[in-house]
Structures are given as structure tokens and as C-alpha cells.
Specification:
single chain, transmembrane, mainly alpha, Gly_transporter, cell membrane
């Protein structure tokens, strides 16, 4: 099963790197900018996860294949630039959703292998899934998806919890992986399709009323008094 985990990790790197390339194209970046966005999206979350868990060196240093995969993804994207340019606006969030699901499983699985508790493993899964995309969006001067109203980090948390729960029940690894992928991907795609969002709590501040709005809320006697005051003020001016 270690081979399955490895190839799932590679698939996540490819999908996330592609999402970085797409955003770079829409932001009118040069090939180097495409490479930077692809790299930070593909390995940014896993790098941060390894640093937090104390893994030295980080995964892509011990296995440079990840870097070659990112380079290959960018190279193929440059060759097929016109096809990528024609992709619909909905392709980026869908590709990002697949990367989120894959990296959530990988991050949670690796944290458990290193002896982390269930809570820490869930957080590491979420970090692996969302951190790379956050860095990508910040570099592209966009509000990161995880900070918007849409269900994003919540989907990663749910997928991580499902994986930890199945692991605690000693379920087969394939079952835990499949269940986590289905939950994370299902929640994220549902949020994209039906625009599902968490409730937003914010202070509501009312703008100051104009003179016409104030007059409209006054009763008839009040309007008469206000009219008299206005006439007196006008006479004083003259």
C-alpha cells in the first residue's frame, strides 16, 4: 500500500501544480511565474506539514522526483498553452478540489505514521490540503479560497476526521483512503455546484441618513417643524 500512497501523492502534486499553472495564465505571468505558482501549490502544503512535524529533510529534498513532476507539468502546460487558456472558469476550483482531497489523505496518513494524535493528524491533513493553495492565491493577489465563505477547509477537516476514525477502527487502508477521498471531494464539489457556504458573522453598520431620508421618517407635525427650522436657517444666511 505504500506504493498506492506514493502515487496518490504524485497525483495530488500534478493536480495542484496544474491549478497553479492555470491561475498563472489568468494572471498573465511569464513561464517563471508559472513555475513558481506550480511549485508552491504542489509542494507548499507538504513542506509546511513536514516542518511542523519535525521531518528533516522535507519530502521533496529526499525524493527530487516531486520537483521533476512539477517541471514536467509546467512544460506540458507550456506546449498546450492554448488548450489551457480555453478551459472554463469552473475547471480551476474543480481541479483544486481533487488536489485538496488527495493531499488531505496524504497529510493525515503521514501524521499518523509519525505517531501523531488523531487531532494533530486531522490538522496536518488540512494543512497539507490548503496551505499550498493559500500561498498560490496570495502570490497571484487573490483572496485565498480557504478565507472565503465557501466550504473549503471544512471539507478537508471532515475528510481527515473520517480517515482517523477508520484508522482507529482498524479498517483496511483502502477503505480509509476511499472514504476520506469521497467525503472531502464530495463536500467540496457540492459547495462549488450549489454554492454552499458557512454562515458569516459580521457587524452591520448603517450609513448616516441624508436629509431627505430623515425627512421621510418624520411625522407630519415633525415635518412642519423641520421646515420652519430650514426657513429660519436660510434667512440667517441671507
Amino acid at each position: 500500500m505504500s506504493g498506492v500512497i506514493y502515487w496518490l501523492d504524485m497525483a495530488g502534486v500534478i493536480v495542484f501544480a496544474l491549478s497553479g499553472v492555470i491561475l498563472a495564465c489568468r494572471s498573465r505571468m511569464d513561464p517563471f511565474g508559472m513555475l513558481v505558482l506550480a511549485a508552491v501549490t504542489g509542494i507548499g502544503g507538504g513542506t509546511l506539514r513536514d516542518l511542523v512535524l519535525g521531518v528533516r529533510p522535507v519530502f521533496w529534498v529526499t525524493d527530487p522526483t516531486y520537483l521533476w513532476v512539477i517541471l514536467a507539468t509546467v512544460g506540458v502546460s507550456l506546449v498546450g498553452f492554448h488548450y489551457i487558456h480555453r478551459l472554463s472558469r469552473g475547471f480551476l476550483p474543480v481541479a483544486d478540489a481533487f488536489g485538496l482531497a488527495l493531499f488531505t489523505v496524504i497529510g493525515t496518513h503521514k501524521a499518523l505514521l509519525l505517531g501523531a494524535s488523531g487531532v494533530v493528524a486531522v490538522l496536518m491533513g488540512m494543512m497539507t490540503g490548503v496551505a499550498g493553495g493559500m500561498i498560490r492565491d496570495v502570490l497571484a493577489q487573490r483572496v485565498p479560497m480557504v478565507l472565503r465563505e465557501e466550504i473549503y477547509a471544512t471539507a478537508a477537516l471532515a475528510g481527515g476526521i473520517v480517515y482517523v476514525a477508520f484508522d482507529a477502527l482498524n479498517a483496511p487502508l483502502t477503505v480509509a483512503i476511499a472514504a476520506s477521498l469521497i467525503v472531502t471531494l464530495g463536500l467540496r464539489l457540492a459547495a462549488i455546484h450549489w454554492r454552499l457556504a458557512l454562515p458569516v458573522f459580521a457587524w452591520v453598520t448603517l450609513p448616516p441618513k441624508t436629509h431627505n431620508e430623515t425627512a421621510a421618517t418624520l411625522s407630519t407635525p415633525q415635518k412642519a417643524k423641520e421646515r420652519v427650522r430650514m426657513i429660519r436657517r436660510e434667512r440667517k444666511k441671507h
